[in-house]
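During the reporting period, our protein records have gained a structure token line. One record among many is quoted in full directly below:
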Amino acid sequence: MRVPIPHQLGKDEVRRRLQSRSHEIANYVPGGMADVTTGWPDEDTMNLSVKTMGQGVNGRVLIEDTQVIFEIDLPAALSFVEPMVANAIRSKGQKMLEAKPAD
């Protein structure tokens, strides 16, 4: 599943925001018991591993000049929830790219 989110921030700013806010991803997973691991195999790719309630999903976030693409390896058995997952990624992904209010 691929979910593109357009942006006008530039790659450096997107990278900075994702790196500084990736710990928030677990808060966006329903149930509140998610274990999220991220890694950066290169400067424009963030790998994701999400485990919750005995299930695991892997994916990547690809940073491009004008969009961020969330690629999620959704198992076939969960394909029926793809529209809900895509909508959640669009909504929460956009929030991660928004500027955080000053403390």
Remarks:
- The CA atoms of residues 8 and 70 lie 17 Å apart.
- The helical segments are 11-21, 82-97.
- The chain has two helices and five strands.
- Residues 2-95 form a domain with the TATA-Binding Protein fold (CATH 3.30.310.80).
